[in-house]
C-alpha cells in the first residue's frame, strides 16, 4: 500500500521579493517554497510553523490558503526517483513577524544549502519548482487564479 503525503508551504513576499529555500542536487541549483510534510497529529498550520522554524530559523504567521497542488512523481521530470511519490501540497500566504530573524534553522532538508530572497522580476530566470506557479507572480504579489492547480510541477 502506498501513501499520499500531505504538506504545507509558505508563500512569503516582502518588498517585491519571494522567500525561497535554495537547494542543490546533481542537476544544479533550484529553489522551492519553505515548508514540508505534515506529521500525524498536527494541523497543516502547525506543520508549516514547525517546518519554517526548521528551515528558515524564524516564526511565520500563517495566513490564507492560496492553492492546493498535487505532485504525482511518475508524471513529471523526476519520475525515475519519484515514481512512487504522491504529495498533496497546501500553500498558504504567510508573513514574518521578525523579517530580520531569518537564519540557520534547526533542521534542513538534505538538499538545502541556504535561504534566498528572489526579486519577483528575476523569478522567471531561476529554476524554481513548481515551475507552473511562476506565471502567477506579478508586481503586486501573487494570484494563482484557481484554488486547485492539479498535478503540476
UniProtKB/TrEMBL annotation:
- Source domain of life: Bacteria
Keyword Signal annotated? no
Per the database record, which ranges form the Nudix hydrolase domain?
A: 3-143
Residues in the signal sequence: none
Keywords for the protein's UniProt record, in alphabetical order: Hydrolase
| GO MF annotation list | hydrolase activity
Report if keyword Hydrolase is assigned: yes
Q: Which InterPro entries match?
A: NUDIX_hydrolase-like_dom_sf, NUDIX_hydrolase_dom
Q: What does this protein need as cofactor? A: Mg(2+)
Q: Which PANTHER family match?
A: GDP-MANNOSE MANNOSYL HYDROLASE, MUTT_NUDIX FAMILY PROTEIN
This protein's name:
NUDIX hydrolase
